[in-house]
Amino acid sequence: MMKQLNIILLIQLCITFNLSAQSTYFPPITGNNWETTDPASLDWCTEQIPNLYNYLESSQSKGFLVLKDGKIVLEKYFGTFTQDSSWYWASAGKSLTAFLIGQAQQQGLLNIEDRASKYLGEGWTSMTAEQEEKILIRHMLTMTTGIDDNVPDQFCDEPQCLQYKAEPGTRWAYHTGVYGLLIDVIEAVTGKNVNQFINQYTANPIGMKGIWASTGSGELYFTNVRSMARFGLLTLNNGVWDSNNLLNDPNYFYQMISTSQELNKSYGYLWWLNGKSSFKLPGLQIDFPGSIIPNAPDDMQMALGKNGQIICVIPSQNIVMVRMGLPPDGSGALVTPAYLREIWTELNKVICNTSSKNEEAQVASISLFPNPVVNALTIKIGQNDFQKGAIVEITNVAGQKVISKVLTDARSMINTSELITGVYFATVKDEKGIVFGETKFVKE
Fold it and tell me: How far apart are CA 75 and CA 55, in angstroms?
């Protein structure tokens, strides 16, 4: 039965590609010429575009671009940032890495059901050999390795930072350090630097200009906005650029952009998925009901990075949307989903999308900054989410409550000077004690 279902889904995927490819434009591989479409010709509400751009500028955006059928409909740069300026993808690069893993498997260099230690060597974690050998490449792609994410340095991929928490496949937890080792896997199986591999098999064939670089925040990919959009367009067309099939494995591609496990229905292979019945967020073990971005199309696939690095791919509308920039407010992984909901509030006005769902998100928009913090932590709750009488409770990793404070305003300050160094969770409850938001921070 499952085999028949997979066949049906793959057929649907192929049909979707055939329909979109017939009407999709692909820009030239070299040069800056890229066909455009006047938003007025799409019956978009062009009078709303200045408001969208004003919001993007006020939220520290550097670049923004929307493609429709492969052609540029909206493109805007802010400050000194230009069409040729380069910026980091942050965790949006995870989705690019998933694509590279698929290409490596396509070439017969690995199988995602292989043990990670086959390529990383024994002792790549601090676990026992028996615990370590149970972790597969698939677990790394789906964030289900069981490795403890409650560590001070989420970017650390050294064995001492990779400790046992649960059996692989039984717990979903967002862990950037574990993800970064997939790049090591790529280099091990290909015998090439990751930049050589991506340039040969992905970047050069689609005209994407970029480079992987090691930073204090792990391995980051840097490109300009249009290059980011090129990868979004490649994904929109199921791994095919014009007539060049770069990921000729429809089964892997479908799994990459579909629910990969039942622990977080809104996560594929390092891709976030909209329109599911529930979702988890980085650092949290709460199942929030509903869609991550309730005012955006249900079939939207998202590459999301810290501080608002975003690629949205929407097959039903043949649209790709890209945003690059500084953090809109605060910092951290949880800022980006909340910010994306705000972008879609403005973008829906431009698209004249009166049929879009307008219900409030099922999780409050909460920002904590600075993060890491020393003496004073500011908590900000979205105006539409704030409730008088709400209480914020700070707990440590052992679940012990260390601070409790009634919030009198959407923006409040919390004294953290007496907290010891470590990871903490901030849970916001209403008057009745019902949790409507949670995030985490690090005390230095």
Answer: 14
Q: How far apart are CA 357 and CA 86, in angstroms?
A: 34
Spatial CB neighbours of 7, under 8 Å, sequence gap ≥ 6: none
Q: Name the maximum alpha-carbon separation found in the chain.
A: 62
Alpha helices in 215-315 (DSSP H): 225-236, 250-256
DSSP string, 337-360: HHHHHHHHHHHHHHHT-TTS--PP
Q: With CA atoms as reference, report the closest residue to 110 among 223, 45, 190, 24.
A: 190
Give exposure, 286-316, as e/b (b: 16+ Cβ within 10 Å): eebebbbbbbbbeebbbbbbbbbbbbbbbbe
**Contact in structure between 149 and 264 (CB atoms under 8 Å):** no
DSSP bridge partners of 87:
223
For residue 319, the surrounding DSSP H or E stretch is strand 319-325
What whole-number distance in Å separates Cα of residue 332 and Cα of residue 371? 7
Window from 140-154, 334-348, 376-390 with minimum mean pLDDT: 376-390
Tell me the backbone φ, ψ of residue 242, rounded to 5 degrees: 60, -110
Average pLDDT over residues 205-211: 97
Q: Are 360 and 339 in contact (CB under 8 A)?
A: no
48 CA to centre of own chain: 27
Interaxial angle between packed helices 225-236 and 93-106, expressed in degrees from 0 to 180 and rounded to the nearest 10: 50
- CB-hemisphere CA count at 13 Å for 305? 25
| More confident call, 3 vs 84 | 84
* Lateral strand order in the sheet of 71-77: 71-77, 61-68, 319-325, 309-314, 301-305, 272-273
Q: How far is CA 281 from the centre of its chain?
A: 10
- Mean pLDDT, the chain, whole residue set: 88
Tens-digit pLDDT profile for residues 428-438: 887 767 766 77
What residues contact 392, with CB distance under 8 A and at least 6 apart?
Answer: 379, 403, 404, 405, 407, 412, 414, 426, 427, 428, 429
Question: Do residues 188 and 147 make contact, with C-beta atoms less than 8 angstroms apart?
Answer: no
**pLDDT band at residue 15, thresholds of 50, 70 and 90?**
very low
pTM of the model: 0.78
- What's phi and psi for 427, nearest 5 deg? -110, 130
The answer to whether 210 touches 229, Cβ cutoff 8 Å, is: no
Predicted local confidence at residue 255, as pLDDT: 95
E strands in 373-434: 376-381, 391-396, 401-406, 411-415, 422-429
